[in-house]
Amino acid sequence: MKRISNFILLLFGVNGVICVLTTILGLLTDKRMLGTLNISYISGLNKFLWNIQFFSFWILALGIVVGAFIGILITLFKSESN
Asked: Mind listing the pLDDT tens digit for each residue in 24-35?
């Protein structure tokens, strides 16, 4: 069980890094930050980054809820076995 929970934590850690990086890159390619520079592929990249950020945020939020639930279950089973 410990190996599985460590693997899940690793996956959510990687997802958190993806979430933060896509947020930063999305802000850097935003039209308001670029000003008059209007390149179509940057706009497409910006939309793509915000989509990744949106889904990775919800996966991260869901991971926190699932992780808390798993932590509660582990705590309950450990206290019952003692």
From this structure: 877 777 766 666
Q: Where are the alpha helices (DSSP H) in 1-82?
A: 2-28, 31-34, 40-81
Which pair of structure tokens corresponds to residue 34?
């670029």
Residue 62 to residues 42, 46, 72, 75, 80, Cα–Cα distance (Å):
30, 24, 15, 20, 27
Q: What is the pLDDT of residues 39-66, one digit of tens each?
A: 666 777 777 877 887 887 888 788 788 8
Q: Domain ranges for the chain, please list them.
A: 2-81
pTM of the predicted protein model? 0.51
